[in-house]
Design brief:
- The complex is a heterotrimer of chains A (588), B (346) and C (146).
- Chain A is built from 17 helices and 26 strands.
- Chain A folds into 2 domains: 382 residues, Peroxisomal Thiolase, Chain A, domain 1 (3-Layer(aba) Sandwich), CATH 3.40.47; 150 residues, OB fold (Dihydrolipoamide Acetyltransferase, E2P), CATH 2.40.50.840.
- Chain B is an alpha/beta fold and 346 residues long.
- Chain B has 11 helices and 11 strands.
- Chain B starts with a strand and ends with a strand.
- Chain C is globular and about 65 Å long.
- The relative contact order of chain C is 0.17.
- Classes of the chains: A alpha+beta (588), B alpha/beta (346), C mainly beta (146).
- Chains in contact: A-B, A-C, B-C.
- The interface between A and B is large, with 89 and 86 residues.
Chain lengths: 588, 346, 146
């Protein structure tokens, strides 16, 4: 049994579109509020934990070092951990093991993000999360992978956009009661969401949470220290985290297995056997509206494909049977990536102490779950928190404070103020790389130049892998041989995208798709569709590669110009030929 | 916490034809084979130490699980040097959430066109970076300040570089044993007193005491700290972060500096080795028991994996039975102040 | 066959707002030619440039201490190479200056040097004629005796 660790304080900055404050100053605002909330002096803090998502937003390499002073880490043991969008909830996990290890009694955990520094649009920084060799040349927009996943989720379970849009409505309305919120709106409707501009079908503007600046901090303590610092500690009952394969195009995006794995780890520790009954309030990660539903299913709170109908029935409303995102979530409060995740932990802390004011869920919730997600549809971080069902305020005590207090701090700048700020500095990220493609991808690129698509085979699990790799990640052993695969396949999922990677409108929409090539196992790679009208694209559609002329091929993923629809006859012939070639190769 | 497996790959100025994933797979394979463990089922948690701008990819965390056998397992990235990953493993094990942990860090410096530009991007964007100067300016400033307050000489620093490279001749992993470029870099720092980058990957498999066989190397104490990040308010006279990290490590290991028989300390710059020995209370340690591997000056500097390279050298020495108590220390290099210390015994 | 190397970059740019503390500092420098700092009385530290918080205790600070324009040289170095490790045409001298009244140091160029600088020497800030609110409102630090 691990030693008990509690959250004893929490604080946050306002979430704003563009803050005047530096990341250090935002971190300070949150850290100071968290310390004040439990009357703790910095000198009594043993260690500091911090998370922040990519350095490419704040624009400082080793952002963790840079933020250390604002986070209160001067001359203290200090560490930044990092799991992409899962970071915010992971901050509490990092704090948990720091205290549970016995190496610290009291820790401050900070999550910060300053996305507004990134130009011309923070969205553009997301280009750099894609594979440097096989994906970035396609100019992928972050919206693509969300759209691909959303489309797959809707298609797998026959869902309607309307069911999904209601999540955005619920959360933005909930956020109207959150003092730090950027986008609380009491009067938004499903019609508003469905009428908003289509960015990358099926993703529309109001399905997406807003990019923001902000910081959140919590104080965590050992059992003894917790009892000194507060009469109402909220205990961390379980933690879990799980990272799936990088090869996201080889996975079915309909269900987040890694969230389930993380949830099982946390529930196991917490002794939760029937989550739907034993969890009284949930803060799933909601960067897009459909994600809340997707994650609620991964959290085993609803069956696969069943979260939308439960939401439609009011189960997830603040006064419903299982309130979800009573805070207003990312959709309503804002999405400074890491800070948004920790905001959910703070929300559970306040809810379980009945301090959430107008956001307070009715009844006497005893246990909640917070979850964050990130990377390439890859990581789940989960924390289960509980108040031990202990008595809260007695009749003679004054009512609990409203948390966070009104008017959380941060100085919002208008676009004009941002552009004319005294002392503002503009700089390009000038680092340059010369990446070794390595043996496997080097051979793959050579194959593309020769108009061939190559794959590697693992005889242990029997899979044929594209993109090829020298190791099988499932069996953890070297792959055994190479083969060529057909240049035809099926569209697993697709999107119709109307904006570029830096949010400029496209005259002719792009159609990104995950293409599962014939002869491969579990998917192929990301590419674009061409010679097809957006309305005619269907999941499952058969396609073939269209190559650039030999003189224009350079050993790049762009040697394939695009994939176009294929008729059945031609496909059968091509598959038959490739099978014969493959048989010959493997006997050589 | 015991060391049940070690593996490494690369340790050369370039690793042509090998991607970072392939470099990691090789080191991980070795480490798991050494430990006799299957990562798919017998390793509870994975910790990687990396930074996005070292790789040229944002959210680099995404790209690690496959080649480490960590798919659908608990994986986290620590944005710091490899010894911070070892500290994390200790906390994971002591907390009870894991009993075996793999820690990885690597350098593919040969994929970075200018490491100077990467380092500079860690400087304050408003106050320092606009000056346009390389982050190495901080090493030149610190070296001169430290020589002034400590009374050491430039010759002593040159001696450190020469001795480390001499030691490196016996180290098959070392690439820079014969480097000799005394031209000035940032006065009084010279080129030969600054470690050159190298590619490489190190993977350690660490386990709870009860899962570690007799006769293994044990890590008894770890400390980590940092100083004010800003150039303006940090301590310029001594390696304060290393001092604090050492104090914590010694206390947790139940020893003091005089018990340390040999040390692998950070020598990113020759003066830093002397400054770090002072900070660790090891200024009296026989120079031939310091950085016997050749340190970064001799092996090459493995960027965020540098601390693990020192730890690896320490573990190998203990396994060979040459000594019983050793110490590995890391510093993240300019413009950082972060430092970590691990005390090991066999 | 030579290994495949793929060139690349991270095509992102930034506009950094200096923050509340630095804004006060740059406005004072630009408008009045003074170096504004903040003092934490509890910790006994005066920070230049001005900050809105003390890093040692997290107390809120007021940017209200005027420091400098002279100070003491804490260290200096001569840059021989640029950020890409290519030799500079002209070496450039940099220094850390502790302005009078401050407990922190200021990183900038040392200029108008006739002899090698000395740690402990007195220097004076040389301000630019046309100031915009930036680190370049300071041209550098020169020996104070001149």
């Amino acid at each position: 049994m691990s030693p008990r660790v509690a959250v004893v304080g929490a604080g946050m900055s306002r979430f704003v579109r563009r803050a005047q404050e530096t990341g250090k100053e935002l971190s300070w605002i949150a850290a100071r509020e968290a310390l004040a909330s439990c009357e703790l002096k910095l000198e009594d803090v043993d260690a500091v934990c911090l998370t922040s998502a990519p350095d490419a937003f704040d624009g400082v390499h080793r952002k963790g070092d840079y933020l250390a002073d604002g986070a209160g880490a001067w001359a203290k043991p200090y560490m930044r951990t990092y799991v992409g969008g899962g970071s915010g909830v992971f901050t509490a996990i990092q704090g948990w093991y720091t205290v549970a290890s016995g190496l610290a009694d009291v820790v401050v955990c900070v999550a910060e993000e300053k996305m507004s520094s990134c130009q011309p649009h923070p969205q553009g920084a997301f280009l750099t999360i894609f594979d440097n060799i096989l994906e970035r040349p396609l100019g992928p927009n972050l919206l693509w992978i969300f759209a691909l996943e959303m489309q797959r989720y809707m298609q797998a379970y026959g869902l309607d956009k309307r069911d999904i849009a209601q999540v955005a409505v619920k959360n933005k309305r909930n956020a109207a009661d959150h003092p730090a919120a950027l986008l609380g709106q009491t009067d938004i409707t499903v019609e508003d969401v469905l009428a908003s501009e289509t960015l990358a079908w099926p993703v529309q503007r109001l399905d997406v949470s807003p990019i923001s600046d902000g910081a959140v901090a919590i104080v965590m303590a050992s059992e003894d220290a917790a009892k000194r610092l507060t009469d109402r500690p909220v205990w961390v009952q379980g933690v879990g985290w799980n990272l799936d394969t990088t090869y996201w195009t080889n996975r079915d995006l309909a269900y987040p297995e890694y969230v389930e794995n993380a949830a099982r780890m946390a529930y196991g520790m917490a002794g939760v056997n029937e989550p739907r009954k034993e969890i009284h309030v949930a803060e799933p990660y909601d960067p897009f509206d459909y994600k809340e539903l997707h994650h609620l299913e991964g959290l085993l709170l609803f069956d696969r494909g069943k979260a939308p109908e439960a939401a439609a029935a009011g189960v997830t409303a603040r006064d419903g049977d299982l309130p979800c995102c009573p805070s207003g979530g990312l959709l309503g409060v804002g999405n400074p990536i890491a800070a948004a995740g920790l905001m959910k932990i703070a929300e559970l802390f306040w809810q379980l102490r009945r301090e959430a004011g107008a956001r307070q869920v009715p009844g006497t919730p005893e246990r909640g779950v917070a979850q964050a997600w990130g990377d390439l549809m890859q990581v789940g971080t989960v924390v289960v928190m509980g108040n031990d069902g202990g008595p809260l305020t007695t009749a003679t005590q004054s009512p609990p404070p409203q948390s966070p207090p009104p008017s959380p701090r941060a100085t919002p700048l208008s676009d004009q103020e941002f552009r004319s700020a005294t002392g503002a500095v503009e700089q390009r990220l000038d680092t340059l790389y010369d990446w070794d493609a390595g043996e496997a991808i080097g051979a793959f690129l050579d194959g593309l130049r020769a108009q061939r698509i190559l794959a590697t085979i693992c005889i242990s699990c029997g899979r044929t892998l594209v993109p090829p790799r020298k190791f099988c990640e499932r069996c953890f052993r070297p792959t055994d041989s190479w083969t060529e695969v057909p240049q035809t396949g099926n569209v697993e999922t697709f999107s119709i995208c109307h904006v570029t990677w830096d949010m400029q409108p496209l005259e002719v929409p792009q159609i990104p798709a995950v293409i599962r090539l014939d002869g491969t196992s579990e998917g192929g790679f990301l590419h674009l569709l061409g010679e097809v009208a957006p309305d005619d694209v269907r999941a499952g559609m058969e396609v073939e590669a269209v190559w650039k002329p030999a003189g224009e091929r350079s050993g790049s993923i762009l040697d394939i110009a695009y994939f176009r629809p294929l008729d059945q006859e031609v496909r059968r012939e091509l598959v038959a030929t490739a099978t014969v070639e493959k048989t010959l190769e493997s006997t050589v | 916490m015991g060391v049940v497996g070690v593996g490494w790959s690369g340790f050369s100025p370039t690793t042509a034809g090998i991607s970072y994933k392939e470099l990691m797979f090789e080191a991980a394979r070795q480490a798991y084979a050494d430990a006799g463990l299957d990562p798919r089922s017998e390793i509870d948690s994975f910790v990687c130490c990396s930074e996005d701008l070292e790789e040229g990819t944002s959210i680099f965390d995404e790209y690690v699980p496959d080649q480490l056998g960590a798919v659908q397992r608990p994986v986290q990235t620590v944005a710091s040097d490899g010894l911070f990953g070892v500290a994390t493993a200790m906390m994971l094990i002591r907390s009870g959430v894991a009993s075996t942990v793999a820690v990885e860090s690597h350098s593919k410096a040969s994929d970075i066109v200018s490491t100077g530009r990467v380092d500079r991007f860690a400087m304050d964007p408003v106050l320092n970076r606009p000056l346009g100067v390389s982050a190495t300016v901080l090493a030149g400033l610190e070296m001169r300040r430290w020589l002034h307050v400590s009374g050491r000489s430039e010759d002593e620093c040159a001696e450190v570089a020469a001795r480390n490279r001499d030691h490196a001749r016996n180290n098959p992993r070392a690439s820079y044993a014969d480097t000799h470029d005394p031209t000035p870099l940032f006065d009084p720092l010279t080129h030969e007193q600054a470690a050159e980058p190298a590619d490489g990957c190190v993977v350690l498999v660490l386990a709870a005491e009860e899962k570690t066989p007799e006769g293994a190397v044990f890590i008894d104490g770890i400390g980590w700290s940092q100083d004010a990040p800003s150039v303006e308010s940090r301590e310029w006279d001594r390696a304060a972060a290393a001092e604090r990290a050492a104090r914590a490590a010694y206390e947790r290991a139940g020893i003091d500096a005089s018990d340390v028989e040999f040390a692998e300390v950070d020598d990113t710059y020759a003066y830093k080795q002397l400054q770090h020995l002072d900070a660790l209370g090891l200024d009296e340690l026989d120079p031939d028991r310091v950085n016997v591997s050749g340190g970064a000056l001799g092996e090459g500097h493995l960027r965020e994996a540098n601390g693990l390279a020192r730890a690896l050298a320490c573990i190998e020495r203990l396994r060979a039975g040459d000594a019983h108590v050793g110490l590995a220390q890391s510093w993240r290099g300019v413009p950082s102040t972060s430092a970590a210390v691990a005390v090991m015994r066999r | 066959m030579s290994p495949t190397k793929i060139p690349g970059e991270l095509s992102v740019s930034f506009r950094y707002t200096p923050g509340v503390g630095n804004t006060a500092f740059f406005e004072a420098l630009r408008d009045r030619g003074v170096f504004l700092g903040s003092r934490c009385d509890d910790c006994g530290v005066t920070y230049v440039p001005a900050r809105i918080f003390c890093e040692r205790c997290l107390a809120e600070l007021d940017p209200s201490e005027e420091c400098g324009p002279e100070g003491e040289l804490v260290s200096w170095t001569v840059a021989r190479v640029d950020v890409d490790d290519r030799p500079l045409d002209e070496p450039v001298t940099y220094g850390l200056v502790r302005l009078d009244g401050a407990d922190t140091v200021f990183l900038h160029r040392l200029i108008d040097l006739e002899d090698a600088p000395e740690i402990g020497g007195r220097l004076r800030a040389v301000l630019a004629e046309d100031r915009t609110g930036s680190i370049f409102d300071v041209e550098g630090f020169a020996p104070a005796s001149r």
